[in-house]
Each structure stands twice: as C-alpha cells, then as structure tokens.
Design brief:
mainly alpha, 254 residues, 0% strand
Length: 254
C-alpha cells in the first residue's frame, strides 16, 4: 500500500491526469478482484464446513442403521424359530396328536412373547430438523430414508397389533387357570419337579388343558402364518438399510 501511495502521489505532482485515472481504474479493478477472490474463498470454506456438518449427520444415520440391521437379523432369527415350532404345533392339532407332543406345545408358548423392533432414528430426526436436510432433499438417499422409515412404521403397527392380541388372549387364560403349575412345568427341570409333592402327571394334565383352550391355539395359529410376514418385512428393511449405508458411503467419500 505504501508503494501504491507513492505512485499516486508522483502522478498527481507530475500533473499526469490521464495516467492517474488509468492507474485509479486499475487499482479499483484490483480491489474488486481481491474482493471476489475473498468471497470465493469464503464460499469455499463455508461449503467445506457444510459438507463436514452434513457428513456428521450422515455418519450418525449410518451407525444407527447398522445397529438396526443387527437387531433385525436377531428378530428375524428368533421369530423364525418360534414360527417353525408353531407350524409343527398347528399340524399336530390338525393331526390330533397333541397328547404326543406336549413338549412341542410348551415351546410354542414363546408365541406369547412381545418382541418389538426398536429402531434408532435419532440421527435421521436430527438431520430433518437441521438446516442441512435440504442438502439431500429430492435425492436418492432422501427417497431411501423415506421408504425405510415408512416401512418402520408398518412393522411397528403389525407388531403392536399382534402383541396386543396375544396379551388379550393371555389375560383371558389367566382368568381360567392358576398358572403356577404351568410355569413350573415349563421352566423347572424335571429333577426339580420330582422333589415336589405335586406329581408330574398333574403338571402335564394342567398343561394339556391349558394348551387345549382356543385362546392358546389361536395365538399359535396366528404366529404360524403372521410371523412369516413380519420376517419378510424385516428382510425388506434390512435390504433398504444396506442401500442407505451404501449411498451414505458414496456421499461422504466424495
């Protein structure tokens, strides 16, 4: 700046107006160029900052989706085991061989367990409420996330409907039976039961009566076919989860 001031001062003293005007115009152009460069650098820095902030949200969504996938795999595995048992129990009912398959009906009692998929949607909800959500609006990732969480809602409704039904049936059965013998028969070892005053035949008889009730068998029949639908939905959600992770990797590694 000191150098430029000397030039201006010399041009004024020498009364070189034309050259001074050219110099002044050149200096203005240099200032404008400097401002534009500064703005470009600022925009570039802000763009990097925005991308890093968005990537933080996406990385969190990726982590939560990976956790969901692990949970879905365990749920699918558990429900399939129960469904297979319930299908065998249902066939036993149709074949009228229930008395020969008491242990099978004991195991089918797991159909009353209230399993729930509990997704971690914290990262997605945080992104939606942030200023960076617009960065993925109307993109492939946006579409995948919408499908994913739409299916999450459908799964939640199906699970809620099934679990409410089983609770209702179980509550009714509780009014018909003292379940102390049933629970003992289901969860205590045979060696432990032998030491009790109640004979094994009484445990077995109560359990046969319990499992012969329509409320019990309705739950078995429902689990035998509805679990297949739930498992299929778990698999669909898992596949969407893998697609989301792949798309996030593509975005964050650019």
């Amino acid at each position: 700046m000191k150098f430029f001031r000397k030039i201006r001062h010399k041009l004024i003293l020498d009364n070189k107006k034309t050259q001074y005007l050219k110099y002044a115009l050149g200096e203005i152009i240099l200032v404008v160029i400097g401002i534009l460069i500064a703005l470009q650098i600022n925009n570039w820095n802000q763009s990097i900052k925005n991308k890093n902030s968005l990537n933080e949200y996406l990385t969190k969504i990726k982590s939560h989706t990976s956790e969901d996938i692990e949970q879905l795999e365990e749920l699918a595995k558990g429900r399939k085991q129960i469904a297979d048992i319930c299908k065998k129990a249902r066939n036993s009912i149709l074949d009228k061989t229930e008395n020969d398959n008491l242990f099978l009906f004991m195991a089918s009692g797991y159909a009353f367990a209230d399993y729930y998929f509990k997704p971690n949607s914290g990262g997605y909800e945080s992104l939606k409420s942030s200023e960076y959500y617009g960065k993925i609006n109307n993109t492939k990732l946006d579409s995948l996330l919408a499908k994913y969480h739409g299916l999450v809602d459908i799964i939640a409704e199906n699970e809620r409907s099934y679990n409410q039904y089983t609770v209702h049936q179980e509550n009714y059965l509780d009014t018909q039976f003292d379940r102390s013998l049933i629970l003992a028969s289901a969860f205590m070892s045979r060696d432990s039961l032998v030491t009790k005053a109640t004979p094994q035949s009484e445990y077995d008889q109560v359990f046969k009566e319990y499992t012969s009730k329509p409320s019990y068998r309705n739950v078995i029949s429902l689990a035998a076919w509805q679990f297949d639908t739930m498992i299929n939905q778990y698999h669909q959600l898992t596949e969407l989860g893998h697609q989301i992770i792949k798309e996030i990797d593509t975005i964050t590694e650019d």
